[in-house]
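For consistency, the fold was encoded as tokens, as this record shows:
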Amino acid sequence: MRDTSQLAKIFGDHTVAQLSSARVLVVGAGGIGCELLKNLAMSGFHSIHSIDLDHIDLSNLNRQFLFQRRHIKLSKSQVATAAITRFNPRVRASAEQANITNTQYDVDWFAQFDIVLNALDNLEARRHVNTMCLAARVPLVESGTAGYLGQVTVIKGAKTECFECQPKPVERKTYPVCTIRSTPTTPIHCIVWAKDYLFAQLFAESSDEGAMDVEETAENSDELSALREESTALAKLAGAMGTQDFARLVFDKVFDEDIERLLSMKDMWVQRRPPTVLDFAALSEHTGFDPAHPDDHAVLEPKEWCALFVHSAERLAQRRLAMDQSTQGGLVFDKDDDDTLHFVAATANLRSLAFGIEQKSIFATKAMAGNIIPAIATTNAIVAGMMVMQAILVLAQRIPECHTSYVTYGKRARCIIKEPLAEPNPRCPVCRRRYLTLRVRDCAQTTLGDVLDFVKGLDSDRDLQLGDDISVVEGTRMLYDPDFDDNLSKPLYELGIASGKMITLTSEDDDDGSIVPVVLSIAAAKSQDSLAIEGFESVPIFAPLPQLVSADAESDDEDDVITDDFVVDDSGAIVLEDDDVVTSPMIASAVSSISEELSKRKLDEISVISQDDTKRRAVSDDDIEVLD
């Protein structure tokens, strides 16, 4: 039995009792997740549920200490929860191997937990969990590490800023399009081509010409034009998707026809090694290799790469065809998705083979394609410890005592700093929403028009305050607006709307942003009513948006720096102006409209800049408490 007497001396017996009864969801059982699960089990938490999509890999063993060599290829979450129950038999731990973004994990599923702790390694899942916790009104402890850097913060709807309140700059290296398309010289060139061009053209949502991260200039405009023509030709192969010839047709297009075209440009190869055309018939001869279970750490033989290409292409084609076409969705590359990873690894290495470039193992390709920063076990342990401390404060209803904490590395004498939790960004596109639950008895019988009629007919005390002209969107899809009513008579199920989905209602009359959109989380009915809405009693009241001035406004202080909507004075504060009324100053980093160059120049003089894996934030020295 775990002794919690020391914890009781710090937080009190009542808090210890709360920890033992609290239901905790841990999302992710990797580097941070293993340390976190162990800490929770040894800190008085008795009801823990873990979810993770991934399997244990050999490379995990140097920092994810709940795993051993005998666990390789097993579920991370299941092995981790089994380990912590051996540490503390009183823990009631459960686990699932699944993707947290699946619609089965709807708002009701999230609402059963008292707190959620994120130990994720990708932006998409973080954003999803942030939104679901806002909708379910469950506090979230967010975390992240990048090498020696780490960060922990608490997200509580209407009280603190959410994960989306500050922009998340995505720093991606760009490559010359001519190099990627015609003259690759390194493995990363082939991986970028396989991931951002070939995979995107065949299996992504749309054949977006901007999928490959290149800049169009006068020098490369001809190359981009040719690339678009190739993309069009490749897109035509989608008609063969699902047939026995699909993989061969793609292979012949990119490793035969395209290379023959390049070889016809004699001048290009005067001082370069020309590529070699690959023969599908020769490479597809049977070798006894099992493409369903490749060795991730070995550099495969050419015939094995070809077999892996065919196997992964056929599996991806089946998945793409099986997707609900009404959702207009597509596949997304995920380094933890074996099908997408194997396709990128196989095509990248076949291209390397054609151009005489060093080939890479599947594991090495995963690291390069996923932009993986080496993890540090010590950073993970520190961050996991800080997460548990924040979780205890949240469950003890001591939110004002919570902080955003940073693990830093470099010139500062201390490695951990903290700052008060920031208030919600009044212009945040995610948390400045009214989240409600729409319970639908039968999505196959209820139409979109039924939903709109129901919403417009609500009593005055439950009025959504959107006016008469309402637009409805789901993700990036427009389902309805006053000028587009084609979907009104269609059942929700036909539109791809079912339990676990969310639709957003906005007002067409909202010219100044003063009308708060409504997000309806679709959930199963609890009564015989065909439609019902819940959650009005918990919806926060949002303050009016501050008015922003034009860039034409003049400053009387010649030291001020004028930006689009703000004045940055020589103290480093940003002042919002509305005619003669000046609102409270804000720290420069909290305003996304200021250019990064300007804010960094000002903040280098007055502030400390700290980073985590997803965002960059600056805090004034006056607001920092340095921890021993």
Q: What stands out?
A: The chain is about 30% helix and 15% strand. The longest helix spans residues 302-322. The chain has a mean pLDDT of 82.
